[in-house]
């Protein structure tokens, strides 16, 4: 998405327009008003006396609200305008727009104001993949309102547009004829309301229609920010990044139909504004020390949707945690399996990991007890349904061969899993990090079984399985000649031997033998993987390496945040601080909003991080990355009823305080002082981080 | 799902999968000109079915043919809802809970194991 586009969002409803506030979407570009994976407005163009307007400025008031200042005329030379046009727009169950025109002249003015409106009702998947529509369009004018309707059998989606000022409404838009007195003003409210008929007969007013909604939403955001820990720090960009992360996380919250009024993070704008198992869990883990409620909702919602039967089209098994939920037309007609789709091999063990980590932070045993059945079903899935080869590892192979996902790990693009020489293995595949997650899920499941569910026999059994898995894993995945863990095993049990960032996730899971950790860290921080900003997804020198390849060379902030956590787990504090320094420094280049991924170019080559062309932003787990990095830098770890603080900060950060960290201890403060020289031999960070070097 | 099928469901009594769920779902089964009603009550996992005409937390309305296919697992309730074949009003989380009691779709082919390699451990 181009950066000049203006985006406002609230949960899974968002509006993307140009800098005049206009929307003129073609089928393939993600502009318009979207809600529940459907475009509800693809045309929304304002003109005055037949001419389009010129943008003077755009004010981002809140994540859900923007103001556009416009003047008439489209010439290249600016002539003092006698008119100002202001559009103030807020999103929430559709959108609400206040259109104001000011006459600065000492003569009255007669104007024709026109809004052209239209909609293609595209499914977001159709926008992404450029597919065409199968239903029919009906536009109606009824009671002074314009109704845009799309019908395919009983599937009906509609958008209703109305104005508070008198308007002539036709099937293509609204026209206002008006006169503004000298130094006078004219204004109208415009409401755009979306409806999914049949689905709860949703026909709600925009949240802001009566003005009170906006105040509620502002208060809600204030409360959200107040509830999170406060940061004090010598390095200002970190404060800005922290605030940006909290606000973006608030913006991405949405309430899926199973969560009552509670919300969990949607994955990312524009393609992934929905519930994802993996993304919701990892983001909740990153945010646990800051906003533990997200984790509780994620656990409840994903638990309510946990697989209960075998369904090949949806790749569903009993106990499996969903991959992705969608509400658009292609899902409705089962041309896509996302109702929901379960083809993901990591969300199920990660679910147990989140449940345990949540209890360790919050002490909320009630929730952990109430989810015992779900956690046991998830642990059972690992052994009963994921072990496709019968050898004790998690394997994946889609059963839905037309529209299912080939790669069911986080690196899910077609070429992400390769041998050093670039060949791609057959299916099923057992990627290494899945085994790490399985190990950690069994260890953490054992702790919960012993301490919360009071089932010591089950705990013993899980620990025995975990120890056995660890022993086999360190034998079967270890690349002897180069001393790192292979990316995967193929069906013949041979190593898919590319060197990847997945090694860092293995440290996080704890499956790595202590004797092997040093060699793994040498690779993670070595020149083939570490580019100066962070760890690349795939090492330079591997056949498929490409610094702007989606999963084959870019740097993913979320990936790095978990790698840093893994480094801490094995005692490599200074290395974790170096990763934190690189990623947080990159964040400043993106105004505190880390994208999904950026180029894996050597830092000294480009001097600034190069954004991956179609990266989603904001993206939930990138938003969560600075939060997890704060945790790893301060070395926050719940031990019993206490929060242990063991800081290892980059020198340039100076003094860092995180105040009122919530948890089972109620609220405590954490302090640290930057002492780690993160430049080492490869001096490359900027002086802004206070570490000078020779950059 | 005809009324008889629903009543069989009621005889299953306690459903561990629904222990966190309480609420009533009203089924309106449209069969030509007549509409059959059933109310399924869930009380922390205890499931019972009646014909009482009571207010429900969630109402599901569809043709009998649709309910029959949902009950047999041939039709996915969530997709049917998005499509408008099954109309839902009220708390959709009750439908999410309820559909966990339904069977999966008939298998087209057997689940495949890529090789028959034994457990190596």
Protein described:
The complex is a heterodimer of chains A (695) and B (121). Chain A has 695 residues and is of the alpha+beta class. Helices cover 30% and strands 24% of the residues of chain A. In chain A, β7 (51-62) and β8 (65-72) form a beta hairpin. The relative contact order of chain A is 0.08. Chain B is of the alpha+beta class. In chain B, a hairpin with a 2-residue loop joins β2 and β3. Chain B is globular and about 30 Å long. The A-B interface holds A 153-156, 196-201, 257-260, 304-305, 308-314, 316, 327-328, 331-334, 339-340, 370, 373, 388-392, 395, 397, 399, 427-428, 468, 472, 491, 493 and B 16-17, 19-20, 73, 76, 78-79, 81-85, 87-90, 92-93, 96-97, 100, 102-105, 107-109, 111-121.
Give me the oligomer status.
heterodimer
The separation of the N and C termini of chain B measures 46 Å
Give the fraction of residues assigned to helices of chain B: 25-40%
Radius of gyration of chain A: 26 Å
Summary tags:
heterodimer, A: 695 residues, alpha+beta, 13-stranded antiparallel β-sheet, B: 121 residues, 4 helices
Reconstruct the topology from this structure.
The complex is a heterodimer of chains A (695) and B (121).
Chain A: E1 6-10, E2 13-17, E3 23-24, E4 32-35, E5 38-41, E6 43-48, E7 51-62, E8 65-72, E9 83-91, E10 95-103, E11 109-118, H1 124-129, E12 136-142, E13 145-152, E14 155-163, E15 168-170, E16 173-180, E17 185-197, H2 212-227, E18 230-233, H3 236-252, E19 253-254, E20 264-265, H4 277-287, H5 293-304, H6 329-332, H7 347-362, H8 365-370, H9 372-384, E21 430-431, H10 432-451, H11 456-476, E22 478-479, E23 484-485, E24 488-489, E25 495-496, H12 502-509, H13 514-524, H14 557-569, H15 573-589, H16 603-606, H17 620-634, E26 637-639, E27 642-644, E28 649-650, E29 655-663, E30 666-676
Parallel strand pairs in A: 28-30
Antiparallel strand pairs in A: 1-2, 2-4, 3-6, 4-5, 6-7, 6-11, 7-8, 8-9, 9-10, 10-17, 11-16, 12-13, 13-14, 14-17, 15-16, 18-29, 19-20, 21-24, 22-23, 24-25, 26-27, 29-30
Chain B: H1 3-10, E1 22-31, E2 34-43, E3 46-50, E4 58-63, H2 64-72, H3 77-83, E5 87-90, H4 92-98
Parallel strand pairs in B: 1-4
Antiparallel strand pairs in B: 1-2, 2-3, 4-5
